[in-house]
Automatic annotation (TrEMBL):
Function as written in the Swiss-Prot or TrEMBL entry: GTPase that plays an essential role in the late steps of ribosome biogenesis.
Family: Belongs to the TRAFAC class TrmE-Era-EngA-EngB-Septin-like GTPase superfamily. EngA (Der) GTPase family.
InterPro entries to which the protein is assigned, alphabetical: G_ENGA (IPR031166), GTP-bd (IPR006073), GTPase_Der (IPR016484), KH_dom-like (IPR032859), KH_dom-like_a/b (IPR015946), P-loop_NTPase (IPR027417), Small_GTP-bd (IPR005225)
An annotated Gene Ontology molecular function: hydrolase activity
Binding site for GTP 1: 9-16, 56-60, 119-122
Name of the protein this chain belongs to: GTPase Der
Superkingdom, natural source: Bacteria
PROSITE patterns (UniProt xref): G_ENGA (PS51712)
Length: 483
């Protein structure tokens, strides 16, 4: 990205709608409720051949020192410092309001060049409001419709002109082929061979060229935003005593010990019965999507409250999505009966999450950072286990031993024969077992194999999937061919 563009303006003028339009995805939550966006969000924007880093910001509002409005304005001020150009959006249908005038005066005092844009210009009713904007002293406005995509050609021209005025070449590095990663010819086919066949997982290869995706989830007010701020060493997320400050999932690019990481801060997830407002439903859905696209998920608990049923439901969802899970107890510095809390957590996890036997957990204070040094090594280890591969020959020797210790049961007087097995996928480790009657194999025996596999190959706390297939060994003919 050659330059950075920050979208600013008062609440409910369409900033997030324009952000989604320019990045080409519905990344930011959009609702008629004013003030949906609170933290600043980054993305890669594009208009035709013009590419840039885009920042969506909270609605500008005045507030007392220490208030939520004042904290949101501080986030916008930081976005302006990082941006090369600011795009001030106002609602042409509503016309210029005193709040628009106030913040236009604030923007004129900043060093960042400002482009004025009149949004919601798709109807005649917006014409009066469009001409009112000249009084803001920010030059001629650009007429836009973020919802319908109108006016982007005009915005393109104004952006190019402004960039030239401030000495930035908008097309710098356009023909630099060295910056492009050519991943089109990934070898995803099987390797010819016998029982030592090693599969090639295209998802795992793709993961090697992208950051580790780490999502922080939990109930409201567990300290998720505070944790991310402590990790990256800056006040990137709005924090405070109010529950539910984060409304949509915000991603932050970071690097830990040379490892690129994309952190996802998510909205707090309450019990479904308590979620009634549309906006909160959208926030929870956004958090669930963050889990879906993450690789490692940290479930953050309030150590004073301990683990509750809602936390277990979140953990079960992480497991069902096949993500690596770490459980973290926050606010450990204010807990008095620490031994009792740790024992209670272990007991609940053992009873309620048997499918994640050995899941790792730790405790720290996100506010002070004490104990936090153990989190990322644990995340890296969980990600490594999540990508674990077991060769086919080793897996089948293990399978033969496991079946010898505990043979598969007979069903209706007929013996179930597991002929062969292989790992077919990583992320999470997934295995296929080929047998004569897969539908008759009881779940208890599959759980036995899963527990043995987890213990013998040291895969604690990682979701393991075992799929039953009917048929002969698919590599038998290949093995005979090589004899």
């Amino acid at each position: 990205m050659v330059f950075t563009l920050a979208i600013v303006g008062r609440p409910n003028v369409g900033k997030s709608t324009l952000f989604n339009r320019l990045v080409g995805k519905k990344l930011a939550l959009v609702d008629d409720t004013p003030g949906v966006t609170r933290d600043r969000r980054g993305g890669e924007g594009r208009i035709a051949d013009l590419e840039f880093l885009l920042i969506d910001t909270a609605g500008l509002e005045e507030g007392d020192v220490g208030s939520l409005s004042e904290r949101m304005k501080a986030q916008t001020a930081q976005a302006l410092k990082e941006a090369d150009i600011a795009l001030m959006l106002y609602d042409a249908r509503a016309g210029v309001t005193p709040m628009d005038e106030h913040f236009a005066a604030w923007l004129r005092r900043t060093e960042t060049p400002v482009i004025l844009a009149a949004n919601k210009c798709e109807g005649k009713i917006a014409s009066v409001g469009f001409y009112e904007a000249y009084a803001l002293g920010l030059g001629e406005p650009v007429a836009l419709s973020a919802e319908h995509g109108d006016g982007l050609a005009d915005l393109y021209q104004v952006l190019v002109e402004t960039l030239k005025e401030i000495g930035i070449d908008p097309y710098e590095g356009e023909n630099d082929d060295s910056s492009k990663d050519n991943q089109k010819n990934l070898d995803t086919g099987p390797v010819e061979g016998d029982m030592d066949y090693e599969f090639i997982d295209p998802d795992a290869k793709e993961a090697q060229i992208r950051p580790l995706r780490l999502a922080i989830v939990g109930r409201p007010n567990a300290g998720k935003s505070t944790l991310i701020n402590q990790l990256i060493g800056e006040d990137r997320m709005i924090t405070g005593p109010e529950a539910g400050l984060t409304r949509d999932s915000i991603s932050v690019d970071w690097e830990w010990d040379g490892l690129p990481v994309k952190l996802f801060d998510t909205a707090g997830m309450r019990k479904r019965a308590r979620v009634s407002e549309k906006l909160e439903k959208l926030s929870v859905a956004d958090a669930l999507r963050a889990i879906q696209f993450a690789e490692v998920v940290v479930l953050l608990l309030d150590a004073e409250l301990g683990i509750e049923r809602q936390d277990l439901k979140i953990a079960e969802h992480v497991v069902s999505e096949g993500r690596a899970l770490i459980i973290a107890l926050n606010k450990w510095d204010i807990v008095e009966n620490r031994l009792d809390v740790s024992r209670a957590l272990k007991d609940v996890l053992t009873r309620s999450l048997p499918q994640l036997k050995g899941v790792k957990f730790l405790h720290f204070s996100a506010l002070t950072g004490k104990g936090l040094q153990n989190l990322m090594p644990m995340v890296a280890e969980a990600n490594e286990l999540w990508n674990a591969r077991i060769s086919t020959s080793v897996f089948n020797r293990w399978l033969a031993d496991a079946m010898e210790k505990h043979p598969a049961p007979s069903v209706s007087g007929k013996r179930i024969k597991i002929r062969y097995g292989a790992q077919i996928k990583t992320r999470p480790p997934t295995f296929a077992l080929f047998c004569n009657r897969p539908e008759g194999l009881p779940d208890s025996y599959i759980r036995y194999l899963e527990n043995e596999l987890r213990r013998d190959f040291d895969l604690p706390g990682v979701p393991i999937r075992i799929l039953m297939k009917k048929g002969q060994n698919p590599y038998e003919s290949r093995r005979k061919k090589h004899r």
